[in-house]
Design a protein that fits this description.
Blueprint: E1 5-8, E2 15-21, E3 26-31, E4 36-40, E5 47-51, E6 56-61, E7 67-71, E8 74-78, E9 85-89, E10 98-105, E11 111-117, E12 125-130, E13 136-143, E14 146-151, E15 157-161, E16 166-170, E17 179-183, E18 190-196, E19 202-207, E20 211-215, E21 221-226, E22 232-238, E23 244-249, H1 256-261, E24 268-271
Antiparallel strand pairs: 1-24, 2-3, 3-4, 4-5, 6-7, 7-8, 8-9, 10-11, 11-12, 12-13, 14-15, 15-16, 16-17, 18-19, 19-20, 20-21, 22-23, 23-24
């Protein structure tokens, strides 16, 4: 395992949703609070962003070089080069004050995303599934701060309710009843974004935990990597051979003293963990 390094010192307020784009050899992520779409090229070291006219909270690969995404306008198509947005579907049953949060494409080509109370007070969040034909379904509800999802090789879905310190597992397909996969004490940090490696272990970023952890398929902590920031938010495998783990982070809510102690808060980090990930699934396309 290599040392953690900062590859983009951008001071994001709420960096989230890292996505490796194999075709462009680019790592994409968003700053939800600033409505920015960031991109980083490991080959050149270049990092830049596109200012959007509304918040996008998560993106996934789609046909034609575009993204499927979720944000203030519901489920949308996003052109990552121009910022053009086209609506797909509006989630049903959402309370006033809710917004989308994390999301990801599953191996069946569907885009899963969670909603939450933007004030983080009510358990009014839900999980929605955008089918490949553009229909949106409300699958589960009662979430405070849903994060993830992540999918293993069998299609099992992992999903956190960060505010409760819990990670749930859903059988392949995502519609069957969930089981509790792992739970954490407040002093361990709050489970945030996540991804699976090629060995079906789950990597999780821990908000207020100063670390990312690797969990075995039965929910045990088998590795912990310390981060130079308090609020790592999510992670994705990318780079050559999908051997680099990229980690987003946040600076939102940190006071001057905390920011002075962690000047790289909000940056994008990377390290080589010694194993590889899997390519991101593409919306509307079943992974073979």
């Amino acid at each position: 395992m290599t040392a953690v390094r900062c590859v983009a010192d951008i001071s994001a307020l709420l960096g989230e949703g890292p996505l490796w784009d194999v075709a462009r050899e680019t790592l994409w992520w968003v700053d939800i609070k600033r409505a920015r779409l960031h991109r980083h090229s490991p080959a050149t070291g270049e990092t830049r962003f596109l200012q959007l006219d509304r918040r996008i909270t998560a993106v996934g690969l789609a046909a034609g070089g575009r993204f499927v995404a979720c944000g203030d306008e519901g489920f949308v198509r996003l052109d990552p080069e121009t910022g053009a947005i086209e609506p797909i579907a509006t989630p049903e049953g959402e309370a006033p004050g809710n917004r989308f949060n994390d999301g990801k494409v599953d191996p069946l080509g569907r885009f899963w995303a969670g909603t939450m109370d933007d004030a983080e007070q009510e358990a009014s969040g839900a999980i929605h599934c955008l089918e490949a034909d553009g229909r949106a379904r409300r699958v589960a509800e009662g979430f405070r701060v849903p994060n993830g999802p992540a999918f293993d090789s069998a299609g099992r879905m992992y999903l956190a309710d960060s505010a409760l310190g819990r990670i749930y597992a859903y059988p392949a397909g995502g519609d069957a009843p969930r089981t509790l996969f792992a739970s954490f004490r407040e002093e361990q940090g709050f489970p945030d974004g996540m991804t699976c490696d090629a060995e079906d272990h789950l990597w999780v970023a821990f908000w207020d935990g100063w670390c990312v952890r690797r969990l075995s398929p039965d929910g045990r902590i088998v590795a912990e990597v310390q981060m130079p920031v308090e609020r790592p938010t999510s992670l994705a495998f990318g780079g050559e051979g999908l051997g680099t783990l990229f980690v987003t982070s946040a600076s939102v809510g940190l006071n001057e003293t905390a920011l002075a102690a962690q000047p790289l808060a909000g940056g994008l980090f990377a390290f080589e963990p010694g194993m590889v990930g899997r390519p991101a699934s593409v919306y509307g396309r079943t992974r073979g």
